[in-house]
Amino acid sequence: MATYYLSGTDSDLSGGADFNKKLLGSAETAGTITVSLAKNATETSYAFSEAGNPNNADWNTGGVTVEVYVTTRSPDVYLNVRADRVNSSGALQESSTSPGEQNLAATGLYTFNIASMDWAAGAAGDRIRIAYIFRNNNTKSTRSVDIQTGTTDTQVITSIGVGSTGTATGTLAYKVASAPSATAALAYTVQSTDTVTAGLTYCCLLYTSPSPRDS
Questions:
Q1: N or C: which end of the chain has fewer CB within 10 A?
Q2: What CATH number corresponds to the domain at position 153?
Q3: Residue 97 and residue 114 in contact, taking contact as beta carbons nearer than 8 Å
């Protein structure tokens, strides 16, 4: 499972009406995005995972939770969200369902729970895109809202694993009786759903009976 945060930094991908931001793996200093909507308009803006992330060709089945913190409200503005799989160039490959609109009539935290998605297999270079779909219900006037960036109230929580499966090979040395030292190949597999750093130390002591030291 990987968690991202809506950043104030622009993404290298585009297509959003009001913003195209990065989804980062850690929180940052709080910022603000202003979304201005013409009368009776619906506008979709985007946040993208960075290039090479999640580096997973077969996304895990599961839901996505999107948190949005509103700092300037409007009773005429509604928000919905969606999770997309796009390729490395930003072209849409697959989309989730949307959980339904919420009215941004108050400041504070809004949580959207996207239903579990069984993603089709794709390419390791595919990226996550969160669509923020704003709608102005006022038929006469422009309306705007401000949403927060960078904090723990801007999380995007996914079941999509980060990384891939790889195999590493090392050697194990040991002595048998009084014979010269011998080596045997040791193969192990590391599978990661996140960034993992591990050190492995092996110690193997084999004794025969009687011990060579008894002679």
A1: C
A2: 2.60.120.260
A3: yes
